[in-house]
Design goal:
With 399 residues, the chain is α/β, with parallel strands linked by helices. The protein has 2 domains: 141 residues, Alpha-Beta Complex (Aspartate Aminotransferase, domain 1); 239 residues, 3-Layer(aba) Sandwich (Aspartate Aminotransferase, domain 2). Strands 2-8-7-6-5-3-4 form a 7-stranded mixed β-sheet, with helices on both faces. It has a 3-stranded antiparallel β-sheet with strand order 9-12-11. α6 links the parallel β3 and β4. It is globular, with a radius of gyration of 21 Å. The termini are far apart.
Length: 399
């Protein structure tokens, strides 16, 4: 009996899970761990959304199988969101599908469109599903930078000129997880033109579309004329509406890609629990106060964290978007590496962060900090970190 499973051999140990296990063990021992590792919102959804969930769940006929592609009202609600927010018209029947969060959607799409040996271009560093969703489906990953600068376009051209077989899919994610990079509409215009010229599908992850802090609102690739010819875009209600555990996401865009994703999903699931889908409709169609409230919440936390950590001796560039900061290790500790630094921060400062190397080899030298604790706890984390750095002889001038 062969126990060397093909896909397991293609998946290295998840280094972020190593830190998560340490955090869990520390909490079992009664330690007060300030968890800035996982992007898990600490605020509840709006009350009217919870009320709608309870109302529909109380109906006797609400507990059967739902629709894999999403109930019609929810697909219409998502189309309405794109029309209001981006000025993009979508056909709810053929250009929208509901997913169980963006992770499930991305992995199901990979299953639908990837053949073993296909080459996928993905950013490095990136959220793990952007690479491993396609690796699990049998693809080979060629990395491109996460920074949308001249080097990015040069790497795309090299990939098309020197990769065999030629890449068939490009993954983009802005605002980026983990780096918080942002792009403007001109970037997407150039990207759509490039994708058409090179006959490459573009998979856009727009999970952090509403968490932007400077400049213009985050754009969607779908705003570019002709984007539907080459692109599919994933969004999520997890961060915008504080509904992470509800697992509500969407894919919109190219009809062929939506149809392929929908067909695979029809074999894998019966859709999210109908009351959850009904409550998601209430979130999208109802008052949108929470969108601005959450944006301001994370903006204030960002400012507190950057200021407090800086005074502690750790200078962190303020992220322009997302709920994460992409923090370089203090220069004096750079040789330690992101995994060991994360472990020591947990054991010595009782602060959990995510090691950058868990997001790809180009993430080495960084950690991802999630702004999911309140301002008081962020200041406490800074005090703990200051003591840790001082114990190593690192101070503000050295850091």
């Amino acid at each position: 009996m062969n126990d060397q499973f093909y896909r397991m051999k293609r998946m290295p140990p998840y280094v972020i899970a190593e830190v998560n296990a340490m955090r869990h063990a520390a909490r079992l021992e009664g330690q007060d761990i300030i968890d800035l590792g996982m992007g898990n919102p600490d605020q509840p959804p709006p009350q009217h959304v919870i009320d709608k969930l309870c109302e529909v769940a109380a109906k006797p006929d609400a507990h059967g199988y739902s629709q894999s592609k999403g109930i019609p009202g929810l697909r219409r609600a998502q189309a309405g969101y794109y029309a209001r927010r981006f000025g993009v018209e979508l056909d709810p029947e053929s250009e929208v599908v509901v997913t169980m969060g963006s992770k499930e959607g991305l992995s199901s799409l990979a299953t639908a469109i990837i053949a073993p040996g296909d080459v996928v271009l993905a950013p490095n560093p990136s959220y793990p599903i952007h690479t491993f969703g396609f690796i699990i489906a049998g693809a080979t990953i060629r990395s491109v930078p996460a920074t949308p600068d001249a080097r990015y376009w040069e790497s795309l051209e090299r990939a098309m000129n020197y990769t065999v077989p030629r890449p068939s899919v490009l993954v983009v994610s802005y605002p980026s997880n983990p780096t918080a990079e942002v792009v403007d509409l001109a970037f997407y215009e150039r990207l759509v033109a490039w994708a058409k010229e090179n006959q490459v599908w573009v998979v856009s992850d727009l999970a952090y579309s509403e968490l932007y802090y400077e400049g213009e609102p985050t754009p969607s690739i779908m705003q570019v004329p002709g984007a539907k010819d080459v692109a599919i875009e994933f969004t999520s209600m997890s961060k915008t509406y504080s509904m992470a555990g509800w697992r509500m996401g969407f894919a919109v865009g190219n009809r062929k890609l939506i149809a392929a994703l929908t067909r695979v999903k029809s074999y894998l699931d019966y859709g999210a629990f109908t009351p959850i889908q009904a409550a998601a409709c209430a979130a999208l169609n109802g008052p949108q106060d929470i969108v601005e409230t959450n944006r301001e919440l994370y903006r204030k936390r960002r400012d507190v964290m950057v200021e407090a950590f800086g005074r502690a001796g750790w200078d962190i560039p303020p992220p322009r978007a997302s709920m994460f900061a992409w923090a370089p290790l203090p220069p004096a500790l750079k040789a330690m590496g992101s995994l060991e630094f994360s472990k020591q921060l947990l054991t010595q400062a009782q602060v959990a962060v995510a090691p950058g190397v868990g997001y790809g080899e180009d993430g080495e030298g960084f950690v991802r900090i999630a702004m999911v604790e309140n301002e008081q706890r962020l200041r406490q984390a800074a005090r703990n970190i200051k003591r840790y750095l001082q114990s190593l002889g690192v101070n503000s001038s050295a850091a």
